[in-house]
Design brief:
Blueprint lengths: L6 H15 L3 H17 L6 H5 L9 H23 L23 H19 L5 H4 L4 E7 L9 E7 L1 H27 L3
Antiparallel strand pairs: 1-2
Length: about 190
């Protein structure tokens, strides 16, 4: 099985740190908002039956992806509020497979509304960036992953300590990653059965 080279996590962290340092808070918030909008747009026209249908072996359903993004986004919004206040967030980091179980029992409209509410909470947390004097170098642990070479093989999971801006940028990447996952699942829905 192919695995990511040791330098791939370092490259991702370098990208996150460089991009976050170059974005003022209002531009960063706009980019996160745009990515959330793209994720939500990827759900347009999807019905409840298709949202819950397993179409790719070993992959979540679209409903599970939506549940995961909503659950992790609510937690991330809280962690950003702690960072903005100059505090390290309590508890463990938001983990990569966070699911509530609601994807199997909650109506699709309620799942998508939960996603909208969670992105609104994240957006609100981005509206109050930390003052430079408040952060004091405080960070939060974040679980990140890098796909294997050419998107094949097992992803490499690692934990990184991120500042408020870096953590916010990771939320943008999270939305974009799952937008791509939803697009692939939707393509498989209309593909050969």
């Amino acid at each position: 099985m192919a695995e990511a080279t040791p330098s791939e996590p370092a490259r991702l962290l370098d990208y996150i740190r460089t991009r976050a340092a170059g974005l003022e808070a209002t531009r960063l918030r706009a980019r996160v908002r745009a990515a959330a909008g793209e994720l939500e747009a990827a759900l347009t026209g999807l019905d409840e039956a298709d949202a819950r249908r397993h179409v790719l072996v070993g992959e979540w359903t679209v409903a599970q992806v939506v549940d995961h993004v909503a659950q992790s986004t609510v937690r991330s919004a809280e962690e950003l509020r702690h960072l903005a206040a100059g505090r390290r967030p309590p508890g463990p980091p938001v983990y990569e497979a966070l699911l509530s179980g609601a994807a199997h029992r909650v109506p699709w409209a309620e799942l998508t509304e939960g996603l909208r509410e969670s992105t609104a909470a994240l957006d609100a947390s981005l509206g109050e960036p930390p003052a430079a004097s408040a952060t004091g170098g405080v960070t939060a642990p974040a679980i990140l992953f890098v796909a294997g070479p050419d998107g094949k093989g097992a992803p490499v999971l690692f934990t990184a300590e991120l500042t408020w801006a870096e953590y916010a940028l990771v939320q943008r990447l999270h939305f974009l990653d799952h937008r791509g996952q939803i697009r692939a699942l939707r393509a498989a829905l209309v593909g050969p059965a």
